[in-house]
Structures are given as C-alpha cells and as structure tokens.
Automatic annotation (TrEMBL):
Signal peptide: 1-25
Name of the protein this chain belongs to: Esterase-like activity of phytase family protein
Keywords: Signal
Entry superkingdom: Bacteria
C-alpha cells in the first residue's frame, strides 16, 4: 500500500499512540470496544480483511501475505475479550503453488453464503475464488480498468450482497474526474454500477454489506504520526455518491483499520467490527475495534 514508506519514516512519532476515546457524540456510530490481538503464530500480523458470521463470533481473516486465519471471538456482555484461532493456511495460486514476494499482497476478502471465498490482490489487480480455502484458486475474469491500476492502489476491498453478487473497490480512482468506481461481478463479467465521490484525505480499505442491505465502506487516512478511520454508508437503490459518514476517528485513536464486517447482534444493534493491519511493524498494533450505530442503539432503548 502507498502508506508503507510514510509509516517507516514516521515510526518514532507514531510509537506510543493510544486509544483516545470514543467517536464524537454527534456522529452516527459509537465506539464500543478496542481489543489488542497478539498471536504466537509465525506470519501473524498485517491483517487486511475480516469476515464474521451472523452472530459476530466465528471469523475468517486474511493477511496481506496470503495467510488465511480462522477462529472465534470470545465475548463477555457482547464485548470482545479474546480470540481463539482454530486454523490457518496460506492461500494458493491456480497452479497450486504459493505466491511469493510483492505478488502476495492480498487485501480484500468476501465469503458467499455457499462457502465460496473471494480474495482480491493489489499486485496485478486480480480477484481469485476458492471453493476450498486450502485448495488452488480459480481466477475471475478482469475488468478492462484493472490492467491500468497501479500496484499500490488497486483492488482493496470486496463485499457480497444478498443476491451473491461480488463488489470490488480500488484504493484510488483511475482519474480525478472519474470518481471512485464500484465494480460488480455478476458471475460472468464486471461492470461499474456506481461511482462514489472520493475523498482527498481518506482512501478505501474495506467494505461489507450490512443486514440492512446497505453498502458500508471503511476508509483510512495516514496523518504522518498516526491514522484516522471512517465508515461511509451507501444505499445502492437510492444512490447518493457522497454517502453518509457514520463516524470519523481522531488521529491515533485506532491503528491502521483495514478490514470491516457489518452484522446485527442479538439485541438488534448493527455493529461495525474492524481489524487493523500492523504492517508487521513493532510500533503498530493489531486490534479489533467495534462500533454500533447510534440510531440502532436509540431504537433499541426506546423498545425497552
């Protein structure tokens, strides 16, 4: 990703940044928790995407070095208190061998209801599918735009809607005037279905469809001494290209949030669960961060 060199330069300034509190009160999502995650597993770190099941417990995640992680989130009163890994393996190329070097930059992850797994890669701007996460990949056809995407700002986020259609978002638009393309794969080809108004400060890093059917986009800004994150929500049926901003974190409040999973908990709250990519740097941290939509919390409060 484009931020890696800047991160290395800003290492000393970034070291020691801590969570500074919840999102601003007037925002539409409220911080619930931030859990630091460490594993004594070779290759752990650099987590770039996350998928949770419907009850927010079982997960799959992928690092930007093609390591697929499977496990469970431990919760007390709904708050994440631990992580139990149940499996891990490196993703394979279509020929059954492993990716190496810069080509293994896996960034996006999406899980279809039939268990088929999709992974996007910035290197070569490609999407691969896995019927078996431990087996060889199947390469999906590309869109003509994909070949023109720079290797450090290509396909960054994947999401699947309730019809099983796959969506992809690049980290940056190809042109300033063109807007940020939202690509949809219908099983045969990719098409641009909408163009999102890009931000000069924030870049897309993760996406998901929520239980409300809306499209959620996680974006990240690197401010020289730390990160800011935000989530925008879009109604694709009644599309507004700027969407609505649900929260914007303060500088250094969280680490480099890149993976997003949106789900509804047992109390009816829509939760935004995110995971950070520590870029395998000692001065960064892997954390699982959860927000809840304030509008959902208000409705739940009124029902009691």
């Amino acid at each position: 990703m484009r931020i890696r060199l800047a991160i290395a330069i800003a290492a000393l300034a970034a070291f020691g940044l801590t969570v500074s509190g919840s999102a601003r009160p007037q925002e539409k999502a409220r911080l619930l928790s931030a859990y630091g995650w460490n594993e004594a597993l070779e290759g752990f770190g650099g987590i770039s995407a996350l998928e949770l099941d419907a009850d927010g417990k079982n997960f799959i995640a992928v690092t930007d070095r093609t390591l697929l992680l499977q496990g469970q989130l431990q919760r007390e009163n709904g708050t994440v208190t631990g992580v139990t890994l149940t499996g891990s393996n490196f993703l394979l190329k279509p020929d059954g061998t492993r990716l190496t070097g810069w080509r293994r930059d896996s960034e996006g992850l999406a899980l279809r209801s039939d268990g088929r797994l999709f992974v996007s890669f910035e290197a070569g701007a490609k999407v691969w599918a896995y019927s078996d996460p431990q087996g060889p990949a199947t390469r999906l056809p590309g869109h003509p735009d994909f070949k023109d995407m720079p290797g450090n700002a290509a396909l960054e986020a994947l999401a699947i809607d309730d019809r099983g259609h796959l969506y992809a978002v690049p980290e940056a638009p190809l042109t300033r005037a063109g807007g940020l393309p939202l690509y949809r794969y219908d099983g045969t080809e990719w098409q641009i279905v909408q163009r999102i108004t890009p931000s000069e400060r924030f870049a897309p890093v993760g996406a998901d469809f929520g239980p409300d059917g809306k499209f959620y986009l996680l974006e990240r800004n690197f401010g020289g001494i730390g990160f800011r994150s935000r989530v925008r929500r879009f109604d694709l049926a009644d599309f507004a290209p700027k969407g609505e901003v649900l929260f914007t974190s303060s500088l250094g409040q969280h680490d480099n949030l890149e993976g997003l999973s949106v789900w509804r908990d047992g109390a009816g709250y829509i939760r935004l669960t995110m995971v950070s990519d520590d870029n395998f740097k000692f001065f960064q941290r892997t954390e699982i961060v959860e927000y809840a939509l304030a509008e959902t919390l208000a409705k739940a409060s009124l029902s009691h």
